[in-house]
């Protein structure tokens, strides 16, 4: 393996205990495929079962000896790294908002969605910070934006973390399942505020904006970078799809984003991280089986590291040689959200804030109504002359007590927390807008 080249792979493994189909077989196949590859860094999402992580770790230990599993929430963050380079630091930032405790089927609140990262000691780049994240899923693609308020909060927090890292002098890469298509507002927030560039877009500059009518689903994978909801995926085939997924034969939800440190943007003496290839991977079936590796396809990104003068990292640098082999990739020297984006974001969060306050009133009204009915049932059971009705009273009272407790928690604790968090971020954005206007 050459240090002048960096290969990274990201894959949502769909590794939920019990619910995910063929989990053990698929994770074993994923581990085998990764061990047969030549990746320098692997980032996995939805790897929730620790024994699955240990299986992958054991399979990759000879090639990628450094690994980190991140715990979080009630069920774990489901995020893991495997690296050829030493891990000298690791951080986890749980997102302030990522679903509701009442959304049991969605499950985002229970798993503790987060932006995690490892700090790697790279022989050429120095400190390389790689983020791995799985953003909140709810809200779809059609809008309005307030439906995606939690994902917008996640995007804003991830962008801030990346920007702080780059301003601290580190090369930064972020990968994962961002649950957003490239043209969506959450992706704009991440890229605009962090200064990220998209490795797929930079290596596929001729991607058409309109889906050709003659294109097949397999062709769409490698033309549009489709990683989810593809008809070629056995777990997506046949399921109801929204308009966007139908139009493009799936969605590009998984990303490899990158940027140099802030000082490198103004220096000709810093190494250059150039994306040279980006491909959708794990598109075939598990060997010998009739199902896919996951309900997502993976994404791999290959970078060439150039030293000043245009030489690859492993070659001797000639100071007189000009960097002519690099593509015309321009990073924003002053990344940040536009005034229009800040306004849209504030409006979305404000709408979500008002909805949260309304939900609080609804949940608390259900709590007090349930409490009233429970008292009525207790009093009524004392006056009833029919013994057979008492067990029914007991069951109904138990169910109402559960409902009342749940509504008290959701209304008084969670909705207050959600509203306060949204209010804090809105105030932060107002301050940020004031600063950008002065600049």
From TrEMBL:
GO cellular component terms, A-Z: membrane
Start and end residues of each Endonuclease/exonuclease/phosphatase domain: 9-296
The keyword Nuclease is annotated on this UniProt entry: yes
Molecular-function GO terms, alphabetical: endonuclease activity; metal ion binding; sphingomyelin phosphodiesterase activity
Keyword Transmembrane helix (UniProt): yes
SUPFAM superfamilies, sorted: DNase I-like (SSF56219)
Pathway: Lipid metabolism; sphingolipid metabolism; Sphingolipid metabolism
InterPro entries in alphabetical order: Endo/exonu/phosph_ase_sf, Endo/exonuclease/phosphatase, Sph/SMPD2-like
Membrane-protein topology: Multi-pass membrane protein
Pfam hit, one: Exo_endo_phos
Gene3D superfamilies for this protein: Endonuclease/exonuclease/phosphatase
Localization per Swiss-Prot or TrEMBL: Membrane
Biological process terms in GO annotation: sphingolipid metabolic process
Regions that span the bilayer: 362-386, 392-415
Main location: membrane
Keywords, sorted A to Z: Endonuclease, Hydrolase, Lipid metabolism, Magnesium, Membrane, Metal-binding, Nuclease, Sphingolipid metabolism, Transmembrane, Transmembrane helix
PANTHER family: PHOSPHODIESTERASE, PUTATIVE-RELATED, SPHINGOMYELINASE FAMILY MEMBER
Protein family: Belongs to the neutral sphingomyelinase family.
Name recorded for this polypeptide: Endonuclease/exonuclease/phosphatase
Organism, as annotated: Thelephora terrestris
């Amino acid at each position: 393996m050459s240090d002048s080249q960096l290969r990274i792979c990201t894959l949502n493994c769909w590794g939920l205990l019990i619910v995910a189909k063929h989990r053990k077989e698929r994770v074993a196949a994923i581990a085998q495929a990764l061990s047969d590859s030549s990746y320098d860094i692997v980032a996995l999402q939805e790897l929730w079962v620790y024994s699955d992580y240990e299986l992958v770790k054991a399979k990759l230990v000879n090639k990628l000896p450094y690994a980190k599993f991140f715990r979080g929430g009630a069920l774990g963050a489901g995020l893991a790294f495997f690296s050829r380079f030493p891990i000298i630091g690791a951080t986890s930032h749980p997102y302030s908002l990522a679903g509701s405790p009442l959304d049991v089927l969605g499950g985002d609140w229970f798993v503790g969605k987060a932006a995690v990262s490892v700090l790697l000691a790279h022989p050429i780049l120095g400190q390389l910070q790689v983020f791995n994240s799985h953003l909140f899923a709810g809200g779809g693609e059609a809008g309005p934006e307030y439906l995606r308020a939690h994902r917008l909060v996640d995007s804003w927090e991830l962008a801030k973390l990346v920007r702080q890292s780059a301003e601290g002098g580190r090369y930064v890469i972020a990968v994962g399942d961002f649950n957003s298509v490239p043209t969506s507002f959450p992706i704009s927030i991440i890229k605009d505020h962090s200064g990220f560039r998209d490795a797929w877009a930079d290596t596929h500059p001729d991607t058409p904006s309109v889906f050709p009518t003659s294109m097949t689903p397999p062709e769409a994978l490698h033309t549009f970078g489709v990683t989810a909801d593809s008809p070629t995926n056995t777990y997506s085939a046949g399921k109801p799809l929204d308009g966007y997924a139908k139009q493009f034969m799936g969605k590009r939800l998984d990303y490899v984003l990158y940027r140099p440190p802030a000082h490198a943007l103004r220096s000709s003496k810093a190494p250059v991280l150039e994306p040279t290839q980006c491909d959708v991977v794990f598109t075939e079936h598990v060997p010998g089986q009739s199902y896919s590796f996951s309900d997502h396809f993976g994404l791999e990104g290959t970078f060439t590291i150039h030293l000043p003068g245009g030489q690859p990292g492993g070659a001797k640098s000639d100071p007189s040689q000009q960097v002519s082999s690099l593509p015309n990739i321009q990073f924003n020297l002053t990344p940040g959200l536009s005034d229009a984006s800040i306004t849209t974001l504030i409006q979305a969060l404000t709408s979500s804030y008002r909805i949260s306050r309304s939900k609080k009133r609804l949940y608390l009204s259900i709590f007090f109504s349930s409490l009233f009915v429970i008292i009525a049932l207790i009093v009524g059971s004392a006056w009833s002359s029919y013994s057979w009705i008492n067990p029914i009273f007991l069951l109904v009272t138990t169910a109402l007590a559960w409902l009342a407790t749940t509504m008290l928690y959701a209304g008084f604790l969670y909705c207050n927390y959600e509203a306060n968090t949204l209010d804090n971020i809105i105030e932060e954005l107002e301050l940020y807008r004031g600063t950008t206007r002065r600049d």
